[in-house]
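**User:** You know discrete backbone vocabularies at least as well as I do. Would you mind producing a protein record, from residues through to fold? Write it directly below this note and I will take it from there.

**Assistant:**
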Amino acid sequence: MPDSRPINIALDCRYLGPRPSGIGEMVAALVAHLPGMAPDCRFTLLRAADAAGPLSGAANVREVVVRAAANGPVTLARLPLAVDLTGIDLFHAPANILPGGLRMPSITTVHDIMWLTHPKWCNPSLWGRVERVFYGHGITRALGRSARIATVSAATRDAIAAHAPHVAGRLAVIPSGVAADFTPVPRDPAALARIGVPKGRRFVLMVGQGAPYKNHAMALRAFAAALGSRAGIDLVLVRRRGASGAGLERLAHRLGVAGRVHILPAVARADLVQLYAGAEVLLHPSLCEGFGHPVAEAMACGCPVITSDVSAMPEVAGGAAVLVDPGDIGDIAAALMRVTGDMTLRAALRQRGLARAAMLDWQACAAGYLALYRSVLAEQSPAVRLPVPA
């Protein structure tokens, strides 16, 4: 007899916590949309111990607190040691690595494969060697064992296919979106001053962690080359300070722009929206991105964007940004001079960015994952199938 119980889909939500991330944004969107899209399915959400309260109030959701870290040794070695996964029909691992010990079909979202192709872009320190082994193993397992591998951009799909051609047939592109609270707001000088931007200053904005692939040192050099003599414009970086932040401060001193470079820690979302609203331009010259959420967020807030002409950035920008060679200081500097000096260009970039951001929809992303779940489960025993909507 066919099993009449609801299909039980586990979504690993342990990236949802106090630290903001693009992966967390995606997981939050799936939690918000999936239960309502498939009311006849059951969703088991694996929640981190430091997550703030319940993740969902939907009737078809069960939440389980998992003490093991999402990127920890227990997860990599054998996740069922930390959580009972009995009765799970499909497991969705949304954060690059596939946990060990899973017996059910799985889908892994692989955002990028820099740990396999350019590990020094991620973390060049001694600890980075440990991380390289950890993530290299987890990503390689995901490519080898996942029933489907979702990517957040065609750029990542193509990078995986080039690195591991044998998995090309299991790849699916499901673009990320941008949250509704990233929206145009009036520039508030008092709020900007409270956040850490000196009152009355124009500024170029950068947003992102301090990893080498974010290319912050190159961007700082380009800022100094382009705007070092224009004392009315500052550079604001939203990122964790850390050792690399101190290095940027020393570089700013050597370049003669130290008093005009402001490194801020992670800020509240409303403050980030205000920074996007107040900036002359977002500068995002990354060497590689799985998606590049700051590009989408800035466009949604009406902030002009300068970003790289490589990896996923042109795909996300969709013709609405100025593209530069991230390895060419002169190219980045020329774009900064052009955009900050041309009010008409900034207005055009704002309008094009708003139109492009409106196409990046989290509900469409969730629908893409639900279709992928159906596809995988339909290949299993006939007793384990997701209902197909009329």
